Amino acid sequence: MEAWTQILQFLINALSLGGLYALMALGLALVYSILRLVNFAYGELVMVGGYTLLVVGQVANIPWLIVAAIAIFAAVVASVLLERIAFRPVRHASPNTMLITSFAVSALLQNAALLLISPRTKAVRIPSFFIENINLGGLLIAKSNIITMVVSLALLGLLTLFLTRTIMGSALRAAADDFVMTQLLGIRANQVIATAFAISGGLAGVVSLFWIGRSGSVVPHIGLTPVLIAFVALVIGGMGSLTGAVIGGYTLAFVTVTLNTLLPQGLLEFRQAFVFGIVILVLLFRPQGLISGMQSTERL
Amino acid sequence: MMANEKFADFLHRYATVIILVIPLILIALVVYLLDQVVLQRIVIVMFINLIMVLALQMFTGNSGVVSFGHIAFMGIAAYASALLSMTPAAKAAALRSGYPLIEQLHLPFIPALVGGALFTALFAAVIGFPLVRLSGSAAVIATFALLVIVHTVLLNWSEVTNGPRIIFGIEGLTTLWITVVIGLLSVITAFWFKETSLGLQLRASREDEQAAASIGINIIIVRWVAFFLSAFIAGLAGGLWAHFITIFSPVAFYLVQTFLIITMLIVGGMGSVSGAVVGTLTITAIFEGLRAIENTVNMANLLPGSLAGFTEVLLATALIVLLIRRPAGITGGKEIRLPKRWTRPKPQKEQV
Fold first, then answer.
1. Structural domain boundaries, residue A105
2. How many structural domains comprise chain A?
3. Is A248 within 8 Å of A235 (Cβ atoms)?
4. Which of A125, A146, A154, A292 is the most exposed place for a label (fewest CB within 10 A)?
5. What is the pLDDT of residues A168-194, one digit of tens each?
6. How are beta strands A217-218 and A122-123 bridged, if at all?
7. Quick check: is A171 in a domain?
8. Which of chain B's residues have a Cβ under 8 Å away from the Cβ of A111?
């Protein structure tokens, strides 16, 4: 009985964390697969969502779900604007230039939040169902874990439908495989890229709800951990593959929860080092990741 | 006639170094003569940043592989050199559970500086041998992972770094002239390295990996050598910084510093040593100017809040605009040279 509940607890933790990680990774992977841009500023989209929750949440008498919808919308708008203002002009420059641009955008947004809002941690209004637990026959499960699990699975399902059943979705997948060929076939590059950024922003917005739901507060550097997690998941799953990003997200969550359970107390604080050690090992020994996309990373 | 031609050839080859070194010496001299503490501190930090930027230029500029890991090397060297130079008593006070072997070590400044840098180069050689096989985005992520790993270890290895708390008890041994001399030597080294056969092979591999490999260049080996040589220089910067600041924590060697050094290199133009120098001077000037404005406004209490982040916002904006308008940096990745008619290169010599 004791072992059985522990295993169930482990599975629920891993699956809910995995869903969140998969959403993070997918947002990064959508843009990467088309532009080969590792968008450092992705974390700041989570931050935009978080500060929208804070600011709109302070206005009384708006139901939380509407606040959440506004936060997601804000992240979408921010993402599309960033593409238009910062990334489109450097699209044809070298991948390194794009990368540094995203690094600069990230620093810009973070410091803007520092300057215009506050460098301090701000508490965000969180609805009670994020904090409550359910008692399932002696097993205490956080409602937020179940919500994260269900919402992420539903979103992944919806995105799969969009990517496979609509023309824009097909165009996105085609662009992820071979962008030049897709353009030659008459698909508008600007439209595809803007859509990818919009979805990426939407995912960042959803991530911000759950991420801030976990901590209950927002700071300018709140986006750092999500973007790092997304990177790792992207690399493990296979850079350039959308399926790979999702699988990478779930794998990383299982590894993280396992390390949390198995690592002795003294080594627990080095967990991040272990996770990033795995990243380097994957890049070296299986540069194409678990699922190899059409454009895999190369190694000498 | 012969002597004249030889001199012209010499000028053509080495004018860049002279053009770069003279203004740097002048800046150091002026600051030395003005004898103002604040100004001297700014210039020392500028020279340390210059050494860091040059280290990154040696690897990234010549190989085309962006490294986010060099700040990690700076951090490792800062702690390593500090542990070498601190007195046993200071170590016992600052690190409650230090290892006996480390605690007994006590070296003078220069050996500690070089020792810290050598240790860092060794670390880079071990970790770099597999890492340099990666190019492009994979290299960026792998070196970024290296930065995160080193940061996590520095943050939690309390016996050696005092954990996330500050380390103290380091003597302020870094002087203006030591920093300037090492800075100038770094300029010369970076320029020399670029022109060596190894540097040339590395630059060939930057332009086209396949073509370079096809003419017999062992890309892994040349990248590897560049990687640990540049880590050595980054290590010197770390040691100088540690003995200048004297009190610091692992947070100093993370994303903020990485962003600053990469910005300096990109703004100047990462393809050339001139770019590294121009970028460092430009960003330092802008940064200190904005910092001064920020401080004045904060002091005068003109605004309700503080202006924290103001400098970084403008700097990041400037970087984005520059990347859009001039992605190869101010120098365009070329070295500053004397006009051709002054140096008259021999017509039969082929420029590579």
1. 2-222
2. 1
3. yes
4. A154
5. 999 988 888 788 888 899 888 889 999
6. antiparallel
7. yes
8. 309-310, 312-313, 316
* Low pLDDT (below 70) residues in chain B: 1-2, 96-98, 302-306, 340-352
Q: Which residue of B has its CA nearest to A234?
A: B141
A297/B138 Cβ within 8 A: yes
Please identify every stretch of chain A with a pLDDT value under 50, giving residue numbers as ranges. 296
Tell me, yes or no, if A285 comes closer than 8 A to chain B by beta carbon.
no
Asked if residue B93 belongs to a domain, the reply is yes
| B21, B184 Cβ separation under 8 angstroms | yes
Please answer yes or no on whether B316 and A299 come within 8 Å at the CB atom.
no
Distance CA B223, CA B205 (A): 9
Residue ranges of the alpha helices (H) in B157-196?
158-161, 176-195
User: Where are any strands of DSSP class E within chain B?
Assistant: none
Residue B82 near residue B170 (C-beta atoms within 8 A): yes
Give the model's pLDDT for residue B89: 83
Contact B75, B44 (CB under 8 A): no
- pLDDT of B235 reads 97
Closest CA to A217 of A294, A106, A130, A90: A130
pTM of the model: 0.88
**Residue ranges making up the domain that contains B224:** 2-252
What pLDDT was estimated at residue A35?
Answer: 85
- Count of structural domains within chain B: 1
| Interchain CB contact of A20 with B (< 8 Å) | no
